[in-house]
TrEMBL record:
GO terms for molecular function: RNA binding. Residues 1-161 form the Integrase catalytic domain. The keyword Plastid does not apply. GO terms for biological process: DNA integration. Coiled coil: none annotated. PROSITE patterns: INTEGRASE. It comes from Austropuccinia psidii MF-1. This is Integrase catalytic domain-containing protein. One of its GO terms (cellular component) is nucleus. The keyword RNA-binding applies. SUPFAM superfamilies: Ribonuclease H-like. InterPro entries: Integrase_cat-core, Retrovirus_Pol_polyprotein, RNaseH-like_sf, RNaseH_sf. Keywords: RNA-binding.
């Protein structure tokens, strides 16, 4: 889960943030409107009322180290529930694996969608802010085919795709109430906008991710230098230590490329992103 902040105030309680919850297996998402300064108890109640009551007690939670997620209250509550907490760190931003890229995509999706939320108006000139329209984005995402699973999140979560609003609306009516017609227009416009946001955010995140996370093509036996960012056992002033150490030779192990032992007492297995 990740907290998207910096959003304009919206809704009857002037929400300015969105808690994004992403399920690893089904790839389904839940978008919860909230406040940036919500306490750990506020967030726990939000998840209990909007997530747990509809699904089940969460088995694992991966989040950043926001104070609310590292507080004693949050930790103790999930100890009672039997939920394991995992945190991503600055040195290992990919702790959550695929979720790291997915969360970034969802954040971009929410920001793009919310940025244009104020454009939607009904026949009475009532402006629907991003809080009002956010469920449409969540629904559109759940019924869109995911590239990695080739299935919609709804199929993997429930076993069936929900009937879409546009499939249920009758096309031919002798008379239609102006408010009903306005609602249908807003519904169609919101759905189309949500689909565009989903496509744009995936394309943007993929391009940005690929540029900054290009994996080096190392082979067994290659000599590499290893970043000393995480080396805490080097004597002397840390600010004067070399940025990289080595060279180290690579060897195969369990299908992965690992380092042979070098001059320091290091873990034999290190990520390629720390090598050059």
């Amino acid at each position: 889960m990740e907290l998207v902040t910096g959003l304009p105030p919206g809704g009857d309680r002037s929400y300015n943030a969105c808690l994004v919850i992403f399920y690893r297996f089904s790839k389904t998402t839940i978008f919860l409107t909230c406040h940036k300064d919500d306490t750990a108890m506020d967030t726990a109640l939000l998840i209990w009322n909007r997530v747990v009551s509809w699904t089940q007690i969460l088995t694992n939670i991966i989040s950043d180290r926001d104070p609310k997620f590292t507080s004693a209250l949050w930790t103790n509550l999930h100890q009672l529930f039997g939920t394991k907490l995992f945190f991503s760190t600055a040195y290992h931003p990919q702790t959550d694996g695929l979720a790291g890229r997915m969360i970034q995509t969802l954040e971009d999706m929410v920001r793009i969608f919310c940025a244009y939320g104020l454009e939607f108006e009904d026949c009475d000139r009532f402006t629907n802010d991003w809080c009002t329209l956010l469920p449409a984005l969540e629904f559109a995402y759940k019924t869109s085919i995911n590239a990695s699973t080739n299935q919609t999140p709804a199929i993997l979560e429930k076993g069936w795709n929900p009937k879409l609003p546009q499939d249920s609306l009758r096309k031919y009516l002798v008379e239609i109430h102006p408010t009903a017609a306005s609602f249908k227009k807003i519904l169609d416009k919101t759905r189309k906008h949500a689909v565009r946001c989903i496509k744009d955010s995936f394309a943007y995140t993929k391009e940005k991710w690929d540029k900054s996370h290009a994996m080096p093509d190392f082979k067994v036996g290659d000599l590499v230098l290893v970043s000393t960012t995480n080396f805490n056992n080097i004597k002397g002033c840390k600010n004067l230590k070399d940025s990289f150490s080595g060279p180290f030779s690579l060897r195969p192990s369990m299908g992965k490329i690992l380092m042979k032992s070098g001059p320091f007492s290091l873990r034999p297995s290190m990520g390629k992103m720390l090598m050059k």
